[in-house]
Design a protein that fits this description.
By secondary structure, the protein is α+β, with helices and mostly antiparallel strands. It has 2 domains: 106 residues, Protoporphyrinogen oxidase, mitochondrial, domain 2 (Polyamine Oxidase, Chain A, domain 2), CATH 3.90.660; 52 residues, no CATH class. Helices cover 32% and strands 24% of the residues. The chain is built from 7 helices and 7 strands; from the N terminus they run αβββαβααβαααββ. The protein has a 5-stranded antiparallel β-sheet. It has a two-stranded antiparallel ribbon with strand order 6-7. Helix 1 packs across helix 5. The longest helix has 15 residues. The C terminus is likely disordered.
């Protein structure tokens, strides 16, 4: 979208950075499948990566009916692979089958409703040498006063949602002239750079 376009070396560096896509399979379950907020799945026997139960974050998140658990089964994919290309119905069935396989539910009939959310480019892939590509892009971007990358995808930086939001807030404060903030320092020893009125 830049006019003039970035140098070829910068474009090549950008193209070298890869992302993983993410699927959230949200299912309203009868029962409480596990007592934790979320569990990470470390098994080659299933494709699921993480499972969250929002009732365990707060019963208010589960509505007024007792023994109902809104859960999210998370999968990583690459657009075009078998997981990403599956229908929503097939993904819900996969999540239920894997929860049964892990003995977290007894039957598919515990599922009362479900839907799928697909998020492209959700996770940056930290391959060997990616820092070189990021350095080249950052070096080119530093000459722009009116362009501040933010968030996980904009900065190719693995961080949590709080940190991603913080980068946006700091960029907005800089744009509004409330100081000079450097979003690149978010999540580095929990110290954020702020310079106000030259101080």
């Amino acid at each position: 979208m830049m006019d003039p376009p970035p140098p070829d070396a910068v474009l090549a560096a950008c193209r070298a950075l890869q992302f993983r896509d993410h699927l959230g399979i949200h299912i309203k379950l009868q029962g409480v499948p596990f007592p934790d907020n979320w569990i990470y799945i470390h098994s080659k026997e299933v494709k699921m990566a993480r499972l969250s139960n929002y009732r365990n974050f707060s019963p208010v998140m589960a509505g007024s009916v007792a023994e109902i658990s809104p859960v999210t089964a998370e999968y990583f994919a690459t657009r075009g692979d078998s997981v990403w290309s599956s229908t929503d119905e097939a993904l819900i069935a996969l999540a239920l089958q894997e929860m049964k396989q892990m003995k977290l539910i007894r039957s598919d009939k515990q599922a009362l409703a479900g839907f799928v959310v697909r998020s492209a480019k959700a996770y940056p892939v930290m391959e060997i040498g990616y820092e070189k590509h990021i350095g080249l892009v950052k070096s080119w971007l530093k000459d722009f006063e009116n362009l501040l990358p933010i968030g996980r995808s904009g900065m190719f930086k693995y961080n949590n949602q709080d940190h991603a939001i913080a980068t946006g807030l700091l960029a907005a404060r800089s744009a509004l002239g409330l100081g000079k903030f450097d979003p690149w320092l978010v999540n580095i020893d929990a110290e954020y750079l702020e310079e106000v009125n030259g101080r």
